[in-house]
Design brief:
By secondary structure, this protein is mostly helical. The chain has two helices and no strands. The N and C termini lie close together (9 Å).
């Protein structure tokens, strides 16, 4: 039984690594987009106002997504720790 839990732990750890990679990529993309967003302040008129409004909404959504990813990652980490504990207690 212990071997089965170890396999699941490896898969969970791989999922955690991939999730961290996705989160890192999102942060990098956000930095890039914030730089682009900063350039929009030179835009005048309704088009500039509308683009800034849409970008602000996008960054708000992105912040929500990042928070959800972090919460799910934290849940995954707690689950992995429980699985490790169970694996150790079965030895």
């Amino acid at each position: 039984m212990s071997g089965r839990i170890l396999i699941e732990l490896d898969e969970l750890l791989q999922a955690e690594r991939k999730l961290n990679q996705v989160m890192q990529k999102l942060r990098q993309d956000e930095c890039y987009l914030r730089n682009v967003y900063g350039q929009l302040y030179g835009w005048k008129g309704m088009a500039g106002d509308e683009m800034r409004k849409q970008m602000s909404s996008f960054f708000s959504d992105l912040s929500t997504w990042n928070s959800r990813f972090e919460a799910r990652r934290d849940e995954l980490i707690r689950y992995i720790e429980r699985m490790r504990y169970l694996d150790e207690s079965m030895k």
